[in-house]
Amino acid sequence: MTEPTIGVLALQGDVREHLAALETSGAHGITVRRPEELDAVDGLIVPGGESTTMSTLLSVFDLLEPLRARLKDGLPAYGSCAGMILLASEILDTRPDAQHLDGLDITVRRNAFGRQVDSFETDLDVVGIDGDPVRAVFIRAPWVERVGAGVEVLATVPDGPAEGRVVAVRQGSVMATSFHPEVTGDRRVHRLFVDLVRAA
Ligand SMILES: NC(=O)CC[C@H](N)C(=O)O
């Protein structure tokens, strides 16, 4: 597979930023709004945005079950922020009717960083990314409170009140970050995902 086709779930959220990031990361990016479009992708990004809104729209667009089925089948996926929330197997502090995709064996807490620091930036060391640390932008971000046995922690908050909190994970070819690499211009996180898609 030379240039994999990677879908960006395009129901809500920062779809354009992820498409632009894919185009400069060695992949062809397409939007996914319909089950047929999902059939055409080698991997899928669930973007940042608002997880409960995306959850509602997944049902409205008849994508919830097809997407769960493809993830179960091994579709590589990457979720940033709201995307991490949707990919989780358990969500804390969400709407009682919010759906999740069950692509990663993690428990996430939505809006976990609290009001004072609900948006901030920091430098992170990310497993699998060499060189300079990654500038991580957190916008009303979740953190991971539990990781299942097969889940590798890729990054934790280095200091401050949230020191040690898990903010990037991978389980097989599914990965998620609490932060938004799609808004910084540093493509190393997207390249990491494109490599996972190629290897899958
Ligand atoms: N930047 C984001 O994606 C924020 C996520 C949002 N707080 C949610 O619950 O979905």
UniProtKB/TrEMBL annotation:
Q: Which reactions fall under this protein's catalytic activity?
A: aldehydo-D-ribose 5-phosphate + D-glyceraldehyde 3-phosphate + L-glutamine = pyridoxal 5'-phosphate + L-glutamate + phosphate + 3 H2O + H(+); L-glutamine + H2O = L-glutamate + NH4(+)
Q: Which residues form the active site?
A: C81, H180, E182
What pathway is it annotated to?
Answer: Cofactor biosynthesis; pyridoxal 5'-phosphate biosynthesis
List the keywords (alphabetical): Glutamine amidotransferase, Hydrolase, Lyase, Pyridoxal phosphate, Transferase
The GO terms this record gives for MF are: glutaminase activity; pyridoxal 5'-phosphate synthase (glutamine hydrolysing) activity; transferase activity
In terms of Pfam families, this protein maps to: SNO
One Gene Ontology BP term is: pyridoxal phosphate biosynthetic process
Q: Which GO terms describe its cellular component?
A: cytosol; glutaminase complex
Its subunit composition reads: In the presence of PdxS, forms a dodecamer of heterodimers. Only shows activity in the heterodimer.
- Please state what the protein is called: Pyridoxal 5'-phosphate synthase subunit PdxT
